[in-house]
């Protein structure tokens, strides 16, 4: 069983989807840690409820990004984490974690990358009035939502779509796609 850590900054619904998949024996991975950079994030409550240990850690409490990530790295090592799963972690991964976990960090993004990278991808797609947007799972490199694509799923924008209805559709796709992709990564010997 692969040991994974999930990083989140907000609501943590994707973290929850992974927790639920693990509970339903649909994930051959053990979520050993939830890392959160926002002390008020709902993801922390979800972790408590699920019995997943959480590391709540704010970059503001460290002199540099390197120091911040070194602290995280130590906890990841202590927990034997083999794969880092970013799930709404709104921060660029720095050199310290990238080099320690080369090819073993994945992210989910609510658009068909390379379109609409960065913040509020759903809002960006909605404003652009595209007919199709979607969800991407990719390996993480030093860029913002760049890195080799692992999986994508399209979501159609309907004629009377609202920002809210689009967001709901995207999240629904994310919650199915992410556990499926993580399961695949954890059950094969490629990279992770
Ligand atoms: C998700 O839609 C995820 O794709 C997005 O943040 C949301 C987090 O929701 N991530 C990014 O935009 C990364 N660039 P959640 O906290 O409910 O899982």
From TrEMBL:
Asked whether the UniProt record includes Transferase among its keywords, one would answer: yes
Which residues does (6R)-10-formyltetrahydrofolate bind? Answer: 65, 90-93, 107
Q: Known Pfam families for this protein?
A: Formyl_trans_N (PF00551)
Keywords assigned by UniProt, alphabetized? Purine biosynthesis, Transferase
Q: What is the superkingdom listed in this entry's lineage? A: Bacteria
Catalysed conversion reaction: N(1)-(5-phospho-beta-D-ribosyl)glycinamide + (6R)-10-formyltetrahydrofolate = N(2)-formyl-N(1)-(5-phospho-beta-D-ribosyl)glycinamide + (6S)-5,6,7,8-tetrahydrofolate + H(+)
Pathway as given in its UniProt record: Purine metabolism; IMP biosynthesis via de novo pathway; N(2)-formyl-N(1)-(5-phospho-D-ribosyl)glycinamide from N(1)-(5-phospho-D-ribosyl)glycinamide (10-formyl THF route): step 1/1
Q: Where are the transmembrane segments?
A: none
Keyword Transferase among record annotations: yes
GO biological process terms, alphabetically, are: 'de novo' IMP biosynthetic process
This entry's Enzyme Commission designation comes to 2.1.2.2
Q: What is this protein called?
A: Phosphoribosylglycinamide formyltransferase
What organism does the UniProt record list as the source?
Answer: Schinkia azotoformans LMG 9581
């Amino acid at each position: 069983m692969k040991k994974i850590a999930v990083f989140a900054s907000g609501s943590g619904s994707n973290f929850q989807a992974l927790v639920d998949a693990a509970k339903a024996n649909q994930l051959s991975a053990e979520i050993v840690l939830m890392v959160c950079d926002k002390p008020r994030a709902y993801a922390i409550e979800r972790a408590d409820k699920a019995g997943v240990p959480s590391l709540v850690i704010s970059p503001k409490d460290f002199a540099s990004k390197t120091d911040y990530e070194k602290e995280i790295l130590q906890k990841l090592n202590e927990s034997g984490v083999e794969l880092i799963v970013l799930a709404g972690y709104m921060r660029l991964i720095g050199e310290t974690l990238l080099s320690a976990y080369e090819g073993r960090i994945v992210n989910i993004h609510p658009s068909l990358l390379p379109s609409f990278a960065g913040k509020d991808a759903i809002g960006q797609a909605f404003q652009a009035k595209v007919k199709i947007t979607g969800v991407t799972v990719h390996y993480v490199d030093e860029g913002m939502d760049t890195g080799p694509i692992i999986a994508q799923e399209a979501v159609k924008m309907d004629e009377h779509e609202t920002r809210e209805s689009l967001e709901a559709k995207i999240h629904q796709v994310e919650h199915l796609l992410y556990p499926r992709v993580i399961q695949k990564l954890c059950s094969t010997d490629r990279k992770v």
